[in-house]
Write a structure and sequence with these properties.
The structure is a homodimer. Chain A has five helices and no strands. The first copy, chain A, is an all-alpha fold. The first copy, chain A, folds into two domains: 75 residues, no CATH class; 46 residues. In chain A, helix 2 crosses helix 4 and helix 3 packs antiparallel against helix 4. Chains A and B meet through helix 3, helix 4 and helix 5 of A and helix 3, helix 4 and helix 5 of B.
């Protein structure tokens, strides 16, 4: 492949991009930052190794997820993706807690309505 | 450090564990699997590089988060931590959707109660 059509990985690593380059389909030259992040976190050999271990139809998703993980660590070098997981877990706890409160209010309303119905029935019997 | 007290990283990499080993405080010899996962995903040089870039008081959390990320990828080589994030996001959507439904029910109950109150007031005026 000529210099102008090298994938982002081969361009970053300043090497020739071979026809059978494992990284080329997932790191196009149009998005050099994507490979730069992934390289900084995992390194080219680990990405290549991981992709090679997977069937071809799963490699796009794996490269995408590694890019997301790497971008998370670039944003947050201490917690990375795990920081996002913690925030989401907290958000679930908050929404579940609100749900429990609202369900409680609804149960009170239902009980009041039941009492009113029974009062109405008793009044009509008298 | 003698062979028996080498950290998990130095034992894994079959090297001498120096007094100033950057990895030793976070990869004790008692948990060799933890380093094995992290090494498989990030590689020893990337872990060392990332830890060295951080202030010492943040390194424990960073090593912990890299271990969690690496264990996630060992469980799920395609999606890793990003798979966990997707599941949590779906869980939030589900709980929020349930919350909207329950709030709707509560609003109906409140409206009914308001109507009953108004009916009662009208009846007592007549």
């Amino acid at each position: 492949m000529s210099n102008s059509t090298r994938c982002a990985a081969c361009r970053f690593l300043r090497r020739r991009c071979r026809q059978d380059c494992v990284l080329a389909p997932y790191f196009p030259p149009t998005n050099p930052q994507r490979f730069a992040y992934v390289h900084k976190v995992f390194g080219a050999s680990k990405i290549t190794e991981l992709l090679k271990q997977l069937p071809v139809h799963l490699r796009y998703d794996a490269a995408e997820c590694m890019s997301i993980e790497a971008a998370s660590r670039a944003r947050d070098p201490v917690y990375g993706c795990v920081g996002v997981i913690s925030q989401l877990q907290q958000q679930i706890i908050d929404v579940q807690s609100e749900l429990v409160k609202i369900k409680g209010k609804l149960a009170v309303h239902n009980a009041q309505q039941q009492l009113q119905l029974e009062d109405g029935e008793r009044a009509s019997e008298q």
